Amino acid sequence: MESLKLYFAPGACSRVPLNALEELRVPFEAHPLALLRGEQKRPEYLALNPSGKVPALQVGDRVITENPAILFYLATQHPEGRLLPNLEDPVGRAQALGDLAWCGSALHPLVRQIYLPQLFTAGETHAVRDYAIQAFKPIASRIAARLDAQPWWYGDHWSIMDVYLCWLMGIAQLGGMPEAGAPAIADHIKRVRARASFGRALAQEEAAVERCKIPLPPGVKL
Q: Rounded distance, CA 10 to CA 215, Å?
């Protein structure tokens, strides 16, 4: 088996693959980066991930970037871990990949605009943030309705999609979007955070913050 090394930042979206690795209980090396110190832009990291973002998963001497790709790789390499459902069915596998891509390409940018609108404009930020909130409201309502009808995104069984949604909704709440804290979503977040693998991932983040003196983004609490 090729060695695994995850580059992550405490409190960032890299928590999701960190949780995936802890759920699978496969050996890996955790390498924390301090985003507020610009460590993701240092030459040695850019040589691995030219986009200068987290996460990045080094598999042997190759590197996988972007959450959907990393999560899908881990899920398909370790189907016994049940990170995603229906992996034995080609359509089910594609649907799961579609859900991850939706989180990464649609929800994630909107949530970042809500929380950090200054990254998306050189001018006034209110219009950027207001647009993202209005675009996200019906999505948050749809997610809340689904989670009100079942405990997990895919019904009775936890998946890594639940962790991704938990992180996204938490950041949206930090940006001041009350719909992201609807009762069904709040209950879902509690269930995700109560899972043992989430606790292990959180302990990794807390240890990194303490050991490396990593500052957290504004408002972020582990």
A: 9
